[in-house]
Amino acid sequence: MKATNLIALAAAGIVAAATGAQARDQVAVAGSSTVLPYASIVAEAFGENFDFPTPVVESGGSSAGLKKFCEGVGEATIDIANASRAIREKEIKACAENGVTEIIEVRIGYDGIVFASQTDGPAFTAFTPDQWYHALAAKQIVDGELVDNPNMKWSDVDPSLPDVEIAAFIPGTKHGTREVFEEKVILAGCEESGAMAKMTGDLGMSEDDAEDACMEVRADGKSVDIDGDYTETLSRIDANSNGIGVFGLAFYENNTDKLKVATMSGVVPSTESISTGEYPVSRPLFFYVKKAHIGVVPGLKEFASFFVSDAVAGPSGPLAQYGLVADPELADTQAAIAAEDVMN
Amino acid sequence: MNLETSEMYDHNQAKAVVEHDVKFQCEGVDVYYGESHAIKDVSVDLLDKTVTAFIGPSGCGKSTFLRCLNRMNDTIDICRVTGSLKLDSEDIYDRKVDPVQLRARVGMVFQKPNPFPKSIFDNVAYGPRIHGLTSKKSELEEIVEKSLRKAAIWNEVKDRLHAPGTGLSGGQQQRLCIARAIGPPPRCC
Amino acid sequence: MTDAAMPPAAAAGPSRKPKKSLHVLDDNTRRRNGAERRFRILGGCAVGTGVLALVVLLISILSAGLPSFQQTFLKAEIYLDPAVLDPSGERDPEAISKILTFSYSPMIKGSLTALAEELEAQGAENLTPKMLADMVSGAANAKLRDYVIANPDEIGKTVEFEFLTNARIDQYLKGKVTRESAALDSRVDVAQLNAADELVASGAMEKRFNWDFITAPDASENRPEAAGLGVALLGSLYMMLIVLCLALPIGVAASIYLEEFARKNFLTDVIEVNISNLAAVPSIVFGILGLAIFINMMHLPNSAPIVGGLVLTLMTLPTIIIATRASLKAVPPSIRDAALGVGASKMQAVFHHVLPLAAPGILTGTILGLAQALGETAPLLLIGMVAFVRDYPDAPPGGLFEPATGLPVQVYNFTQRADPAFVERASGAIIVLLVFLVIMNLVAIILRRRFERRW
Ligand SMILES: Nc1ncnc2c1ncn2[C@@H]1O[C@H](COP(=O)(O)OP(=O)(O)OP(=O)(O)O)[C@@H](O)[C@H]1O
Ligand SMILES: [Mg+2]
């Protein structure tokens, strides 16, 4: 029964070892799946160029990442949270409750959100926020009354659009992208088309209620929430030639052979049009650093400064090459990290 | 304590050896399998150095009684034994008695042959080994040969001691089991 | 043969004709034969469907994944420019390591200028040196930098290197990128495809077996061509080790106790029902449990094989216990009687006779449990193992606490990436996973044969 003894010994060893956990020596990052590719590119380069271990990057979404980030201070918690939206008041409060009071906010650049469909599908070439509002909002004003969205085809929304069923694949609510989509496309369309004004005026709704009514997305199957990544959206588009999906610019640029992109308010999405602010649907990307971990976790500050260094996040760096729109105010960010400026 | 039975020789020797000591003294033994009453009030004395046979119709409780003698019935959850069974005037159902120790002294061959799925040699050597009778190989071999000879199977298996015991014929297997039962310091039943 | 089997009429004489000929099938026999025939056909169909599904699955995975074991390499001479690599000229290792990988890109481009011109002359129209340099993987910079740091004396010389090409060129040689798709694709230019053709013809570029796919760590989205399974393999190996070392002894001990020693009462019944229930609990629940207990309460590190191993152990235990109990039950009670009858203690009877007989069943159960654990992703999701990890964990026991991923997690990771080249790598990772499963099952069969031969 030697083998049994050996296994028992090994088991005892593992249990013994499990009780004495050891110090973490690599940076731990988690959060937005939009930021994940950028973070992994930087982590890889960081590991190659410095003597620090390569940081470990987890995805899982902005909210999940920030929640983990706010769990507390100490080795068992992460050092950096990636987010495709700014941290919310509520999250800052939750952080503070758990002792995470000093947070350094780092904006790494901008990400464009594009609308793309099959290359040989219907001619979805130009959109306006107005059209998206009328296609996707749950309620519309018809004859002065708020009713369920009656539009079934894109041509119902606007005769210039293709005569096909509406089939939109938009990011699920756990994605930071969804918020941007709702605010910069649906809400903007609602305001643009005057529906917002009618709601607050004729219908006598409060500002907040009207906003909520504008941004509520229809749930009758015309719009499909994608909780997975853009790869899932892509495969849904692949399977549905009338489908139109919401993608990140970087994802689109990696798949230009399969997808054709539509303009928004007449502007073609590109790193240039986004950095000038011409293309309306874009959002800043962030990561948040736990200041209490600087000096405790080796390489944390170095990683944060490396992330936003000109060689990495600048217009000709690998992040821009992948699809990130470089931040024109990168120098300020670099200085803020050097000074370890925390948010209030 | 050398009742070399379990194989039931069909001749009544009890009267011829009256002067032998009583080895097993059983009085008012009742055995229950759950609700069913398998043995009712059996009292019998088994003599030392004597072959005793139980004869009866099928299902009358012969095996059940034998199993009482080395407390093999303990392994059957629903089985309950009452009455007194004494080995050398010690109650074997006393709380102080460890059935394992008892079984080392009271061997048993079962109704159906049940050799271990090991070699013939290992089958017979198993008892002596676990009871620590010998650690020398030559002595072990001697014990095995003696046991096999006593069970009248030596000639048939001496050339294939390391063949599997399960490969023997039914009768040979049963004789192997007898050899196995008398392998440890030979005991009874 | 007993007398009763003989037809009683046979005594009457050989010449008597039987009432019913055995040469003619009676209705009852015919009906039974028909039923058997139909069952055979049905059975054949069932097996056929299963085999067909398996073949389709295998063909689709193999055709999608096998190319990932091959990679395209480009041989190129690079001038290790001292002006870039060692501006001070002192060959100070400190100073050399200060030069970041990004600085190597212009140097590679410069070294390839001549080659680009040559290729353009040969027919690759509109090929700029930048395009040619872009055909080289981003991993080349790191390779050059490591080489320079290890051999500072080579600075100033021209050295021949072999680099991975970027994924689009590789996919072109594998037939996945075509000129039509390249025309639409912003990441590749038709001129680069022409150049690739020329380079293949001249022998500077070739596609061959790539061990790095199995041994190298994961790579970022910019360089799918460099991504490998090394860390995932190690992580999976560590986790399997932990599962084996914990689940097997605990599971077997628990089953032996429950099956052979414990009294059958209400408590053991409750335990039995619970074990069967645990086996059916969705695996993600074990992940939630692992997160709560091992990470939040015991403060074990995130993303570490130790936590994955413990979670998978919990998940595998019921499987092993159920299999072990079933095989213990299958050992005929007469063997226990035999051992007890010669005076063996219960423990001796179990360990000397029952356990060896049950071993093949236990092994099969254990390996099935391990195989199930090997392919499990959901619980690992919650304990941070679905991550981008590039550093290999150390040898155990220390390495058990360092970040790693696992094979199924790596498959999941690859499928989430934007670059289509990762699709092929996901299938390749599935093939590696399948190979491991096949190996494990083979080991199970071999071990079973071994144990069974000892009757
Ligand atoms: N494990 C058991 N559980 C319940 N009842 C049992 C068990 N073993 C035996 N019995 C019952 O006890 C009675 C006696 O059985 P036993 O085996 O002692 O008969 P036997 O005299 O040895 O018969 P045979 O000559 O056929 O071997 C039978 O009625 C049998 O059904
Ligand atoms: Mg009987």
- For this structure, the quaternary state is heterotrimer
Structural class of chain B: alpha+beta
Under CATH, the topology of the largest domain in chain B is which?
A: Rossmann fold
**Mean pLDDT reading of chain A:** 87
Shape of chain B: globular
Q: Please tell me the total number of domains of chain B.
A: 2
Poorly predicted ranges of chain B: 1-17
Number of domains of chain A: 2
Query: Rg of chain A, please?
Result: 23 Å
Record keyword descriptors for this entry.
heterotrimer; A: 344 residues; alpha/beta; D-Maltodextrin-Binding Protein, domain 2; 2 domains; 11-stranded mixed β-sheet; two-stranded antiparallel ribbon; 41% helix; 19% strand; globular; C: 455 residues; mainly alpha; MetI-like fold; 3-stranded antiparallel β-sheet; 19 helices; 64% helix; 5% strand; disordered N terminus; binds adenosine-5'-triphosphate; binds magnesium ion
Q: What does this protein look like?
A:
The complex is a heterotrimer of chains A (344), B (189) and C (455). By secondary structure, chain A is α/β, with parallel strands linked by helices. Chain A has helices at residues 2-19, 36-49, 62-69, 89-97, 129-136, 154-157, 176-192, 195-200, 207-215, 230-239, 249-254, 271-275, 300-307, 310-313, 318-322, 330-339, and strands at residues 28-31, 56-58, 80-83, 103-118, 126-127, 139-142, 145-148, 168-171, 223-226, 244-248, 259-264, 282-290, 325-326. Chain B folds into two domains: 11-105, Rossmann fold, CATH 3.40.50; 120-182, no CATH class. In chain B, strand 3 (79-87) and strand 4 (90-91) form a beta hairpin. Helices cover 64% and strands 5% of the residues of chain C. The two termini of chain C are 30 Å apart. The model of chain C is unreliable at 1-5 (pLDDT under 50). Chains in contact: A-C, B-C. Strand 2 (56-58) of chain A pairs antiparallel with strand 4 (387-388) of chain C, so a sheet runs across the interface. The structure holds adenosine-5'-triphosphate (ATP) and magnesium ion (MG). Adenosine-5'-triphosphate (ATP) binds at residues 33, 38, 56, 58-64, 76, 111 of chain B. Magnesium ion binds at residues 62-63, 111 of chain B. Chain B: Residues 40-182 form the ABC transporter domain.
